[in-house]
Amino acid sequence: MNVPSNLKYTKDHEWVLIEGDTATVGITDFAQGELGDVVFIEIETLGETLSQGDTFGTIEAVKTVSDLFMPLGGEISEVNDKLEGTPELVNSDPYGEGWMVKINISDASGANGLLAPQDYESLVG
Asked: In the predicted model, what is the mean pLDDT of residues 9-22?
């Protein structure tokens, strides 16, 4: 299981890369492995401002559909368009080409509640 040390994590298995007031978000390697083959991703929240913990979309795999949750409050400023035609990027490259959204962070203090890599590794064991 790959848990990059430069990222923060949520208990809902999203990863977060914070760069200034922008956060890039995706699902973890552990999450994509548990889901299996990803076949569809629906994110219709572009331009919306959501609170930490709100649902920003859904991810559908062969065996299940799961909600995607905001790791930080803010505006969805960008959606990874590549996922529309090739959702399997989430399986093959969850921390790179498989990113899902970019957020303009509205409350940076929300990052204090995110998990450090070692804490996320302990969570998923």
From this structure: 97
